[in-house]
């Protein structure tokens, strides 16, 4: 892909994205913000598709962290978006050594309360723990 293709793709994406924000959220951005977003996505697209032997890619090691707990770990998260109201939740269980055991996700229709969404995902995790017979676990949430 050529440089012009990257510019075209980036412009189309951010113009469409801004249009949706204006129509759905009544939100407008400055031209500087749109321009910054276009330049940022152009850099990312170049890094993904342009092969350059002079570029050294950095490694990023990501691992699951049990924080020295020897029991099952439950990770949960809930989210909520404005209008139309959309709220969802999800989570998953891992064994103390990191093996995936089970997970869940769902949708709370009509809820606009982020605290409710976050607490509901923890509740769903506790129900799943009960159904799986997991008596001892640690729950992590970003709240």
Quick recap:
With 143 residues, the chain is an alpha+beta fold.
How big a fraction of the residues is strand?
15-25%
**Shape from CA axes?**
elongated
What is the CATH class of the largest domain? Alpha Beta
CATH architecture of the largest domain: 2-Layer Sandwich
Succession of helices and strands: HHEEEHE
Uncertain segments: none
How would you portray this structure in words?
By secondary structure, the chain is of the alpha+beta class. It has two domains: 47 residues, no CATH class; 69 residues, Nucleotidyltransferase, domain 5 (2-Layer Sandwich). It contains three helices and four strands; from the N terminus they run H-H-E-E-E-H-E. Strands 3-2-1-4 form a four-stranded mixed β-sheet, with helices on one face. A hairpin with a 4-residue loop joins strand 1 and strand 2. Helix 1 packs across helix 2. The chain is elongated. The N and C termini lie far apart (42 Å). 10% of the residues are buried.
